[in-house]
Write a structure and sequence with these properties.
Radius of gyration of chain B: 22 Å
Order of helices and strands of chain B: HHHHHEEHHHH
CATH architecture of chain A: 3-Layer(aba) Sandwich
Helix content of chain B: 55-70%
CATH class of chain A: Alpha Beta
Strand content of chain A: 15-25%
Strand order of the largest sheet of chain A: 6-7-8-3-9-10
Structural class of chain B: mainly alpha
CATH topology of chain A: Rossmann fold
Number of strands of chain B: 2
Radius of gyration of chain A: 18 Å
Oligomer: heterodimer
Strand content of chain B: under 5%
Number of helices of chain A: 11
Largest sheet of chain B: 2 strands, antiparallel
Shape of chain B: globular
CATH superfamily of chain A: P-loop containing nucleotide triphosphate hydrolases
Number of strands of chain A: 10
């Protein structure tokens, strides 16, 4: 196989206060895949995400992005390749206008003038927010802010888009709009979530992280229908949601 | 919320004053303030002249005078202090409306009142006619250290977020039957303030993480031209 975009080997990490979040995580994501990282609250999902672009350095193990190890001298390159969309768009969007915010990432990469402008326009087009370019982010709806946050990362043209709980706090319409946007992107996606229907809808493959280790890795449908696995790791489907019914519907 | 132009002090318009470059307006405000402060208190007609200048500028800017007047409430604490001066200051006394007041105190109060009011009107006029984003760009062009400009930018961006958080916390408190009506309730309010501080601090850390994730290394990159 080719070099995976994301190559996480034996990553373990304990926070400075002694709380151990990860106990040897192995994860590979290949080009063009859309992978869901599932797990209950407190499983270490966000900690793992912060390893992917070198915000946190692993206590043990290695992370590599397209063969480039995530180490201090490579951080700039790694952060260009791994685009992280954080859970709260208010954390991510801090400039006075949507345009400035989307330009922040590519600007840090050294883009200037018309090339920078083009990046911004393209990224905003991809999420359908081009007409809001001159609005201050805090005057947009939550769903719109989430989309701008995605654009602000897409503008860096990352090799892999990492989304932390992309569907949280969205109303059903915004949720569907975001799903349409994500499906339309040609970029590799790692989606951290405990929204299982969303994972089934968007990601053919899922990985389950529980208590700091990967406990399952396979087709999302197989994982969601594995009762024993699901209940052992505090994963529950929402009331009335049955993956089998959806599959037979899709087949029939 | 949801309006395109968003600051509580900014009054959207297209007057010549609105269109002036922000750094020019900032420099003019600074020069005006320095002149006002340096003017001896006894030059009464000169202060009237300053006021006329401001009135003319506001008239050209087409900002409703009431809009400025309502925002001048911020000055009230200074006015209270100024009003106290004639009574507490020492020196030769004089009669004013049948009350004995200190003469230097009266003069000091007048100075505070006149200079303070002129300053507040001038600043509000600047704020009403210049968008925060342009103000920041203006400060940058006036060679204010970029760290300071960045801090101010963050303040403007997150003021609404923090105010909103504060409002939600207050509503949550009141929904549980609490109202800050007496001094006995202050500890609760203080604890809320503490929680708000910690939340804001943590948000600051998350914002920084998100910035670093997008390649931030300490200086803001060039901004794209406004399209």
């Amino acid at each position: 196989m080719t070099t995976p975009i994301l190559d996480v080997r034996g990553v373990a990490y304990a926070y400075p206060d002694g709380h151990q979040a990860l106990y040897g995580v192995d994860l590979h994501v290949h080009e063009g895949e859309r992978v869901a990282l599932l797990g209950p609250n407190g499983a270490g999902k966000t900690t793992l995400v912060l390893h992917l672009n070198g915000i946190i350095a692993p206590g043990a193990g290695t992370v590599a992005v397209s063969g480039v190890p995530v180490t201090k001298p490579n951080l700039h390159e790694v952060r260009r390749r791994v685009g992280v969309v954080f859970q709260d768009p208010d954390d991510q969007l801090f400039m006075g206008t949507v345009r400035d915010d989307v330009a922040f990432g590519p600007g840090n990469l050294g883009l200037k003038g018309t090339a920078l402008e083009q990046r911004v326009v393209d990224a905003l087009d991809k999420v359908g927010m081009a007409e809001y370019a001159d609005r201050p982010p805090h005057h947009l709806s939550f769903g719109q802010r989430r989309r701008v946050a995605v654009a602000s990362v897409l503008a860096m043209e990352p090799e892999i888009l990492v989304l932390d709980e992309p569907s949280s706090n969205l109303d059903p319409a915004s949720r569907r709009e975001l799903a349409d946007i994500l499906r339309g992107l040609s970029v590799t996606v790692l989606m951290v979530t405990h929204d299982l229907p969303y994972a089934l809808e968007l990601c053919p493959r899922s990985v389950v992280l529980s208590d700091g280790v990967i406990v399952a890795d396979g087709p999302t449908y197989d994982i969601l229908t594995d009762q024993a696995l699901m209940s052992a790791h505090r994963l529950e489907l929402p009331f009335g949601f049955d993956p089998r019914a959806i599959r037979s519907q899709a087949a029939g | 919320m949801g309006a395109g132009h968003g600051h509580k002090l900014h009054y959207h318009g297209h007057s010549p004053i609105h269109r002036l470059p922000a750094h020019g307006k900032l420099a003019a405000l600074l020069a005006f303030m320095l002149t006002v402060v340096a003017t001896p208190r006894e030059w009464w007609p000169v202060f009237a002249g300053y006021l006329v200048v401001l009135v003319v500028v506001i008239a050209i800017s087409a900002v409703p005078p009431l809009y400025i007047a309502r925002r001048m409430v911020i000055e009230v604490p200074f006015l209270v202090f100024a009003a106290l001066l004639p009574f507490v200051a020492t020196g030769p006394r004089t009669e004013l409306l049948g009350v004995s007041v200190s003469e230097p105190g009266l003069l000091a109060a007048w100075g505070l009142l006149a200079k303070g009011t002129l300053g507040v009107i001038a600043s509000l006029t600047l704020a009403a006619t210049t968008e925060p984003r342009d103000l920041l760009a203006g400060l940058q062009r006036l060679r204010l250290p970029s760290q300071l400009v960045q801090i101010m930018g963050f303040m403007i961006r997150y003021l609404d977020v923090v105010t909103d958080e504060m409002r939600r916390m207050r509503i949550a408190r009141e929904s549980r039957g609490f109202s800050a009506s007496s001094i006995r309730h202050w500890p609760v309010v203080a604890r809320s303030a503490g929680a708000l501080f910690i939340r804001s601090y943590e948000r600051g850390e998350r914002v920084h993480l998100a910035m670093v994730s997008r390649g931030y290394t300490g200086t803001l990159p060039e901004r794209p031209p406004r399209g």
